[in-house]
Amino acid sequence: MNLILLGPPGAGKGTQAQRLEESHGLVQLSTGDMLRAAAAAGTAVGLRAKALMDAGNLVPDEVIAELIGDRLDQLDAGQGFILDGVPRTTAQADAIDAMLAQKGRRLDRVIELKVDDELLVERVTGRFTCANCGQGYHDKFKRPKDEGKCDVCGGTDFKRRSDDNEDAMRARLQVYYKQTAPLLDYYRARGKLHSVDGMADMEDVAREIETALKVA
Ligand code: AP5
């Protein structure tokens, strides 16, 4: 099964992608994670991307096409994937379509997570992750069970993303509505789009996604 998770920043794409990885044995391909890894490694592409990301802007389509193309090439034949945070423009969607067609693969579903703007801002500005294993948390919605200690690895060091502040988030939302939201019609016209209420709690969102995956 090959999926796209589509939705504004903070909609829960990463959260649900991690669950789908575990429940369906899929590989999560997150362009945001790839770009942050490149920035942390100090590569030229990563450092250029970081400036754009911190301002809430998109990284150029050519950079994304190359990143995604490389990762799709590394998948074993038949290994299913979840695209998280990509495509974000019609040009990226066209490029992904072409890459998949060339590999004899197809997209099965595009799941849209719908969430109101004010909740998105609250989610993103409260988000943090374990610096050791990357497990995600939230100041209000998902605190570690033992305060200050990661539930998964026991790590005590946590970090926040440099673009998870209110100003950058408002810019990211504007970019989403202008450049990414048109993809909803793009995939609706191809009969691939299923919309899910991303305002519900995480378990309910996961259940709604499972239902959408069963629809023929
Ligand atoms: P990226 O890393 O993709 O970030 P994003 O799309 O802005 O999405 P987020 O990771 O912020 O949110 P999410 O939907 O994954 O939510 P999460 O599950 O974490 O991109 C960052 C930047 O990189 C972009 O701005 C751009 O510059 C660049 N970039 C990346 N891809 C690109 C591309 N293809 N083209 C061009 N540029 C690109 O959830 C958020 C929080 O809410 C968490 O704390 C979570 O615990 C909590 N939460 C989740 N679900 C629920 C729920 N149901 N109830 C309560 N809390 C919840």
Describe this structure in words.
This protein has 216 residues and is of the alpha/beta class. The chain has 9 helices and 8 strands. A 5-stranded parallel β-sheet has the order 2-3-1-4-8, sandwiched between helices. Strand 5 and strand 6 form a beta hairpin. Helix 6 crosses helix 7. The model has no long low-confidence stretch (mean pLDDT 95). Bound molecules: BIS(adenosine)-5'-pentaphosphate. BIS(adenosine)-5'-pentaphosphate (AP5) binds next to helix 1, helix 2, helix 3, helix 6 and strand 6.
Compose a concise summary of this entry:
The chain is α/β, with parallel strands linked by helices.
Runs with pLDDT <50, length 5+? none
Note the beta-strand portion. 15-25%
**Chemical compounds bound to the protein:** BIS(adenosine)-5'-pentaphosphate
Question: Between the first and last Cα atoms, what is the distance in angstroms?
Answer: 13 Å
Shape verdict: globular
What would you call the structural class?
alpha/beta
Rg for CA atoms = 17 Å
Counted beta strands: 8
> What is the arithmetic mean of pLDDT?
95
Portion in helices: 40-55%
